[in-house]
Amino acid sequence: MRFPTPLPRPLLRHTARLRHTARPRHTARLRHTARRGTTVALAGVLLTAGALAGCSGSDGPDQAVDAFLAGWLGGDMHRVGFRNPAGERVPADEVTEEIKQLSGELGKTPPKLRREGEAKVNEDTATATVRVDWTLPGDTHWSYPSEIHLNRGDDDEWQVIWEPKVVEPRLTSGDELAVRRLTASRAAVTDGAGAPLVAPRPVVVVGVQPDQVTDVPGLVRQLDTAFRAIRPPITPPVDLADLPGRLKEAKPNAFVEVVTLRREAYLQIKPRIHHLSGTKFRDEQRELAPTRDFARALLGSVDPAQADDIAANPGLVQEGDSVGHGGLQGRYDKQLRGGVGLSVVIVSKLPDGTVAPDSKEVFRREPQAGVPVKTTLDVPTQNAADDAVRGSRQRAALVAVRVGDGAVLAAANAGTAENLAFTAQVPPGSTFKMVSTLGLLDLGAVSLDGPVACPKTFTVDGRSFKNSDNFALGSVPFRTDFAKSCNTAFAALAPKLGPDGLANAGRSLGLEAEWKLGTDAFTGKVSAGGSAAERAAASFGQGTTVVSPLAMAAATAGVARGQWQQPKLVLEPGPGEPAPPGPQLKAGSVEPLRTMMREVVTKGTGSALADVPGGPVYGKTGTAEYDDNPAHTHAWFVGWQGDVAFAVFVEKGGSSTATAVPIVEKFLRGLR
Known about the structure:
Layout: H1 9-21, H2 27-36, H3 40-53, H4 61-74, E1 82-83, H5 92-103, E2 112-115, E3 120-122, E4 125-136, E5 140-152, E6 158-161, E7 175-182, E8 189-190, E9 199-208, H6 216-228, H7 243-249, E10 256-262, H8 263-273, E11 279-288, H9 296-299, E12 301-304, H10 307-312, E13 322-325, H11 327-331, H12 333-337, E14 341-349, E15 355-365, E16 373-375, H13 379-389, E17 396-402, E18 408-414, H14 420-423, H15 433-442, E19 451-454, E20 457-460, E21 463-466, E22 474-477, H16 478-484, H17 487-493, H18 501-508, H19 532-538, H20 549-561, E23 570-572, H21 587-602, E24 617-625, E25 633-641, E26 644-650, H22 660-670
Helix pairs in contact: 1-3, 13-22, 15-18, 15-21, 16-21, 17-19
């Protein structure tokens, strides 16, 4: 303590003596002096002594603790004196180094340190409590009290008793703190009944050990032949072109991964590959859907984290984690993955420098469980849809919607990882005659049996329209024009719809609406206005009208139900308020339309479906030109049977009767 003014020389001598009399071993001497009587001057000395005893001078225990905490954070302990519990001096550099070693993995982010209150002094010893607050990954805080013991030396300076438990009460010499990451079990994407669609399923990882291969080219040929024999075929096929190079670059005893197969696929070819020189096999579990194709583009996949996943989710994703890619797995990855937990443990080093196998947990933050995503998908319907499009030579999509409530039961895609079923933007072709006919019936422009001519060609503003295969029907009932899919009849009727009649009919069936589905979906764009030639083309699904299979399936369900309702896919978490239902369709319009869609199957272009079991099938075929070459066409079919409405789209499929209708037949038979 510094005094503001110099003291008289006699008082200075007494002050020096007082520094010693304040210590316990001199208390008897002080009491004796007091008994003998003291002068007023001595009374003044005692008062000064009392003031000194109450002062937290430069050598007080609190100041020593504060200097230690500052040195801990700053990495410089030279302002602090240290002794071990045995009373031996400990160099400051040694304390600095041991704190670094004890902190282990936590040392990269030093803790916040705060003395809690004043030190408790008991003669020549003192105890201070400090609060240690570590910031852990994920902005988690681990906070705890730690005691620091001090001794006062002969020079009256307070010294810190250094021991590892100052850093954490359970640490001993040679220990260090480490962080263990705790991941939650990934939640499931479920079907409409709440059963997981994606769950851990057995797989076999096929690999090769380089130093056991006797004939690399021969091995590659045999593996390729075996993989191509798997049914259903692996899409895309396993590419083994780089296998020789990878074997050459790998360590001799490495496991060079070739492909991961579902166990049922592996068992198909096990006799052909298990004996091959160098082949090795590893049984694992992977998060997989019921089959390889099951709603693949819609659901997405769950895969080991890649470098870009880790970079995009710092601190949340690391090597070894499972991450959703694409589809619902990607869109809801964070929710499904849950929150990472962590554990702080004390690990000990063995004499050889290795880490002891056992560890003591000192802090734990439990991982937050992932939250399931509940969908409306129906496993039997999805299996039937996947099986129906499998083997298509062109990219194809099939969507099934429940008529009663709009629930999406299936979304199958073939030949692509893209979810064409929901996001394709393509002309609907003659399936749109369903929409045109609804508009014409609403306006009273046609009737079931009213005659409408179907010539071979029909010209509007210099643009000639024709029918598939250039057929002509002459003057026939409108129902026949519909069943036989006469383009020229609809081109002639287009003016009766006016500039907005077609768009209004489409909107009454949910086209162009803003949907809350829980994933991306294209709801269509209907031609409106435009030239007379554009309106003629749009009347049978050409022109500028574009739709997705889902949009057409939902529109078809609206015709079957008598009122459009937004399709539903994700039930939980709720994707938001759905689009409002469409208007109640006029019975005088929708009933004749249903009759005509039934006659497409019984008398028209969809007759291949007439004997499908399970109740009457209603529908409409469609062939849609997608460029200026009339030979380039997509194939369509929309319809319903019972409570299941559906749309099938085959990209560049040509004739709908040759490509789309057979898919529908296979789908409906698969539902039985």
